[in-house]
Amino acid sequence: MAKVNAYFDNLVPNYLFAETAKRTNAYIAAHPEKKVIRLGIGDVTQPLPPVVVEAMKRGCDELGVKETFKGYPDYEGYAFLREAISGYYASFGVTVAADEIMVNDGAKSDAGNFGDIFSQDNTVLVTDPVYPVYVDTNIMSGRKILYADCTAENGFCAMPDPSVKADLIYLCSPNNPTGAAYTYDQLKAWVDYAIANNAVILFDAAYEAYITEENVPRSIFAVEGARQCAVEMCSLSKTAGFTGTRCGYTVIPHELTVDGKNIYKLWYRREATKFNGVSYPVQCGAAAVFTPEGQAQIKENLNYYKENARIIGATLDELGIPYTGGVNSPYIWFRCPNGMTGWEFFDEMLEKIAVVGTPGDGFGKNGEGWFRLTSFGDRENTKEAMERLKSMLAK
């Protein structure tokens, strides 16, 4: 008799973004005449940079010629892409060898799947508010999960508690959903904690390209000691518009071991079993991101989103609403007005001004009463949404 994984019963029935979509679609069906502006899900709106598109076209053309045709890609990614990524790290002073990089179809996949190589009885520590993938995938595996509180009082940057013992630690900086970013000294404290506890940090750097402050590391490997205890996952989704194209990468230092087992080798073995790699044209496009021309073109898009973040932040300043993010991050995290819960504010904003955001309640207990907006919208829509918000909240 077949049996399902009973741990799925422990999941929250409705995934956060599925519920926001359900409520939004119901509103649209009831009010087809309304223009709904979506600043909720962190999907980009600017097109792929031209240099990326051309590189992907060339990759497709090569697949149509016998002499340049490619079959199954290398599990770890083509060398030309891994070398380009290695060079990118070097551009901001971090040494990562090309053969420590594993190319994937986005950071979300590896963030969710990396637990495959660890025992079920590992204790997991996540910060709260938290990106749901870190929690849900470990619930599916039956692991014990501990929470480090991120609150307004600590700037939404929880710090390690020496009395708490954890084996796997998920950190995201700049953070999704709060937009808060750890300083070097704060990350050093986490690295020291991980080393002291023989723990592994799974570091999500998906938003590193938005960092503007010098004391905020763009990689965990900028921190002394991190190569002994950390894995880093990054994505081209929010930096180069690859949300629909799908490509990212994970860095695993060769010296990282657990129980005497080399983590890179374990992960490679897992990938060779369950993953057939990223397509050649997509990897060609990804490599183009790291060329001088590619970096110049993605900077235009990044600046576009940063300006949207500035517009949202300026609106909240005008309304006197406290928030984090928007400086090193495309996310703006603010306190719901009038003591409302996130879902109450979501419904009120949708009904009154037809603007969609994301309730903080769905990111954990410390998200209750907070709300997330993204800067990934169209510029004019972002401006219009903020004018609507001011009309709704201005006294």
Structure in words:
With 395 residues, the protein is of the alpha/beta class. It starts with 15 loop residues before the first helix and ends with a helix. The strands form four sheets. A seven-stranded mixed beta sheet has the order 2-8-7-6-5-3-4, with helices on both faces. Strands 11-12-15-14 form a four-stranded antiparallel beta sheet. It has a two-stranded parallel ribbon with strand order 1-13. 38% of the residues lie in helices and 15% in strands. Strand 5 (168-172), helix 6 and strand 6 form a beta-alpha-beta unit. The mean pLDDT is 96. It contains twelve helices and 15 strands.
Structural class: alpha/beta
Helix content: 25-40%
Strand tally is 15
- Largest sheet, order of strands side by side? 2-8-7-6-5-3-4
Largest sheet: 7 strands, mixed
Low-confidence segments, given as residue ranges, are: none
Estimate the global geometry from the Cα principal axes.
Answer: globular
Distance between the termini: 63 Å
- Mean pLDDT comes to 96
Q: List the total number of helices.
A: 12
**Compute the gyration radius: what is it?**
21 Å
Order of helices and strands: HEHHEHEHEEHEEHEEEHHHEEHEEEH
Give the arrangement of secondary structure elements:
Layout: H1 16-30, E1 37-38, H2 50-63, H3 79-91, E2 101-104, H4 107-113, E3 123-128, H5 132-140, E4 144-149, E5 168-172, H6 184-196, E6 200-204, E7 230-235, H7 237-240, E8 248-251, E9 257-258, E10 261-262, H8 263-274, H9 280-289, H10 292-319, E11 323-325, E12 331-335, H11 342-353, E13 355-356, E14 358-359, E15 370-374, H12 379-393
Parallel strand pairs: 1-13, 3-4, 3-5, 5-6, 6-7
Antiparallel strand pairs: 2-8, 7-8, 9-10, 11-12, 12-15, 14-15
Helix pairs in contact: 2-9, 3-9, 4-5, 10-12
